[in-house]
Amino acid sequence: MTTNVTTFYGMAKATTNLKDAKARLSELIDRAQAGETVTISRRGQVVAQLTASPPARRPVDVNALRALTRQLPRADEEAGTLLRQKREDSRY
Question: Is residue 89 part of a domain?
Fold first, then answer.
């Protein structure tokens, strides 16, 4: 596999051509998952980049959020009115 590896701001960055990327896709994905950026080119032109995806976020527990919201004290005025008043007060 013809892969060029360069370092950019301390991060490894590999460049490979499309033919080699097809043959070694699993390896390139492992490298991307490890934090390396893999650039794929076709006929000398960059066509894709493989990078690690961010970790999945935990789903929100809607019932717990509703229970927490019910415990909060009610506001005397609406949020929009309060924000407008705060903006006006800060101008003068």
Answer: no
Span 49-63, pLDDT tens digits: 999 988 889 999 999
Task: Tell me if 42 sits within 8 A of 17, measured CB to CB.
Answer: yes
- Count up the domains in the chain and report the number: 1
Region of 83 please: left (phi>0), alpha (psi -120 to 50) or beta: alpha
Assess if residue 84 is contained within a domain.
no
Report the predicted TM-score, pTM, of the whole model to 2 decimal places: 0.51
Tally the C-alpha atoms within 13 A of residue 41's C-alpha that lie toward its C-beta. 11
Q: What is the CATH number of the domain that holds 36?
A: 3.40.1620.10
DSSP string, 24-84: THHHHHHHHHTT-EEEEEETTEEEEEE-PPPPPPPPP-HHHHHHHHHHSPPPSS-HHHHHH
Query: Rounded to whole angstroms, how far apart are CA atoms 21 and 41?
Result: 9
